[in-house]
UniProtKB/TrEMBL annotation:
<keyword id="KW-0902">Two-component regulatory system</keyword>
<dbReference type="InterPro" id="IPR003594">
    <property type="entry name" value="HATPase_dom"/>
</dbReference>
<feature type="transmembrane region" description="Helical">
    <location>
        <begin position="35"/>
        <end position="55"/>
    </location>
</feature>
<keyword id="KW-0418">Kinase</keyword>
<dbReference type="GO" id="GO:0004721">
    <property type="term" value="F:phosphoprotein phosphatase activity"/>
</dbReference>
<dbReference type="Pfam" id="PF02518">
    <property type="entry name" value="HATPase_c"/>
</dbReference>
<keyword id="KW-1003">Cell membrane</keyword>
<keyword id="KW-0597">Phosphoprotein</keyword>
<keyword id="KW-0547">Nucleotide-binding</keyword>
<feature type="transmembrane region" description="Helical">
    <location>
        <begin position="12"/>
        <end position="29"/>
    </location>
</feature>
<dbReference type="InterPro" id="IPR036890">
    <property type="entry name" value="HATPase_C_sf"/>
</dbReference>
<keyword id="KW-1133">Transmembrane helix</keyword>
<keyword id="KW-0472">Membrane</keyword>
<dbReference type="InterPro" id="IPR050351">
    <property type="entry name" value="BphY/WalK/GraS-like"/>
</dbReference>
<dbReference type="GO" id="GO:0000155">
    <property type="term" value="F:phosphorelay sensor kinase activity"/>
</dbReference>
<feature type="domain" description="Histidine kinase">
    <location>
        <begin position="121"/>
        <end position="326"/>
    </location>
</feature>
<dbReference type="GO" id="GO:0005524">
    <property type="term" value="F:ATP binding"/>
</dbReference>
Length: 334
């Protein structure tokens, strides 16, 4: 082990010896310098250096012993290979640890993907009894009870739909099919799904679609509209929701305006943050803080820009700006 220790440090041991020899050589050549005095100084230097080497050897042996507890390949056995310097031993151990963590991470990712697939399958399974429940609700005679049941059914349906799209968000770009879509049919379908809730809250719709055709993905655009219209209905009471579209500078803009409770100025910059609900309405336990977060995540690959303006107590305006046709040339081939 001592031999290996000295071999690994032969470069700076050689440097020390060379410096001492140089000092002796200079003192020998220069008659004004006492050669015996410098010989004494060199002797003391070598003695100190030898003590230093012994201390370093003992310290590093103790270090190897402590490292052996962390990883076997770093113990005293690693010193038996005279061709393996300490740096290579450390690099090898780090490589082994990195490979271990990479394999473990890969396994965790596979487990997460498996859990995600199971959750998606579960959501699809739950949708079947929900559809049956909807058919059963149509046969309920008591209108008040029917309205209450439909509202609770709708809440469950929207939460499941939100979770379904949440799980699909990571692979959204692989799921896009860009085509020409009619806004009126998409908007009508989303309003119809909320019809019972709107009746219950006395909410109507004022729809004017001057520009009706946009390029987008039907499923994900429907999800975006669903989240925004649902929020408008949720936070409004006894008022109309205005939905208007127009074409400006070659782009279609869709505006959804409600006259509900609005959003405070300090909350407005954070409404698309994951899990953020409100700093003003902490008692609203129904809010999940996921709807607008997922809306923003879905809008990004669709190249839809969303602007929000709001005044607390006066309502909120969402403006969706759709991209021009050439923004999707790589996806549509048009």
């Amino acid at each position: 082990m001592i031999k290996t220790f000295l071999k690994e440090r032969r470069s700076w041991i050689g440097l020390f010896i060379a410096i001492q020899l140089l000092i002796l050589f200079i003192s020998y050549l220069d008659p004004s310098i006492s050669f015996r005095s410098f010989l004494y100084i060199v002797f003391l230097s070598c003695l100190i250096f030898l003590v230093f080497l012994i201390m370093r050897y003992n310290k590093e042996i103790a270090f190897y012993k402590s490292m052996e507890e962390w990883h076997p390949s770093l113990g005293l056995d690693s010193l038996k290979d005279p061709g393996t310097p300490f740096e290579n031993i450390i690099a090898k151990a780090i490589g082994q640890q990195a490979e271990f963590y990479i394999n473990e991470t890969r396994e965790q990712v596979m487990n997460l993907e498996g859990e995600q697939d199971e959750l998606l399958a579960w959501i699809h399974e739950v949708k079947t009894p929900l559809t049956t429940m909807q058919l059963m609700l149509e046969r309920v005679q008591d209108e008040n009870l029917k309205a209450q049941l439909q509202f609770e059914w709708l809440r469950v349906h929207l939460l499941l739909d939100q979770q379904l799209h949440h799980r699909r968000i990571p692979s959204l770009e692989n799921d896009l099919y860009i085509e020409k879509l009619a806004l009126d049919s998409l908007v009508s379908a989303e309003i119809k799904s909320l019809q019972s809730w709107c009746f219950q809250k006395g909410i109507g719709f004022d729809i004017t679609l001057e520009a009706n055709v946009v390029l987008s993905d039907a499923k994900w655009l429907g999800f975006i509209l669903r989240q925004i219209i649902t929020n408008a209905v949720k936070y409004s009471e006894g008022s109309d929701i205005i939905i208007h579209s127009s074409k400006q500078h070659g782009t279609v803009k869709l505006t959804i305006q409600d006259f509900g409770r609005g959003i405070s100025t300090k909350d407005l910059p954070r409404i698309f943050d994951k899990g953020f609900t409100s700093t003003m309405n902490h008692k609203d336990h129904n809010a999940t803080g996921m709807g607008l977060y997922l809306t923003k995540k879905a809008a990004t690959p669709l190249k839809i820009h969303i602007d929000v303006t709001s005044e607390q107590g006066m309502g909120t305006v969402f403006e969706l700006t759709f991209p021009k046709k050439n923004a999707f040339l790589d996806l549509t081939g048009m």
